[in-house]
Amino acid sequence: MTNVLFVCLGNICRSPMAEAIFKDLVLKAGLQNQIQVDSCATSSEEEGHQPHPGAQKVMAAHGLDYSYMHSRPITRQDFDWADYIITMDGQNVFNLNQMAPAQDRHKIHLCLDILPDKQGQEIPDPWYTHRFEYTYQVLMSALPAWLDKIKAAN
Ligand code: 4NP
């Protein structure tokens, strides 16, 4: 089993969209018994909240299920559980490195680092930009490559 955890600041915009997209990719690849997917936040600002209405709209438009999702902050168990901690921007990477037990820091990755021509780039926060469909498109440009990497490692 490979466990993949998507993390952003609030767990209401980017990481729930990434979770929903990646679960769909895993299902379509028939790998749901081999890859588990979850998401969480570096803050407890939005704890208990459903995805942002803009994220809900885009997920619905792309046939993705978000009905079960509620924001939650990352815990010590998450760092242990995850094999890949995939996050959205430099601030998330910094915060996660502060929070992670030393032995789990190697699991932390910037999402766009999987694309050779996008290394070091961030996924803009639609909480500020309101560009939810653009966020979906950027995630869709990178997440199939993460699935390929995980498949190749198994
Ligand atoms: P996310 O977006 O990190 O993509 O879920 C945000 C959600 C909430 C806040 C900031 C960003 N906030 O400040 O509450």
UniProtKB/TrEMBL annotation:
Catalytic activity: O-phospho-L-tyrosyl-[protein] + H2O = L-tyrosyl-[protein] + phosphate
GO MF term set: protein tyrosine phosphatase activity
EC category: hydrolase
Domain of life: Bacteria
InterPro entries per the UniProt record, alphabetical: LMW_PTPase, Ptyr_pPase, Ptyr_pPase_sf, Tyr_phospatase_low_mol_wt
Active-site feature positions: 8, 14, 125
Domain Phosphotyrosine protein phosphatase I: 2-149
Assigned EC number: 3.1.3.48
One Pfam match: LMWPc
Keywords: Hydrolase, Protein phosphatase
Similarity comment text for this entry: Belongs to the low molecular weight phosphotyrosine protein phosphatase family.
Name of the protein in its database record: protein-tyrosine-phosphatase
Gene (name only): wzb_2
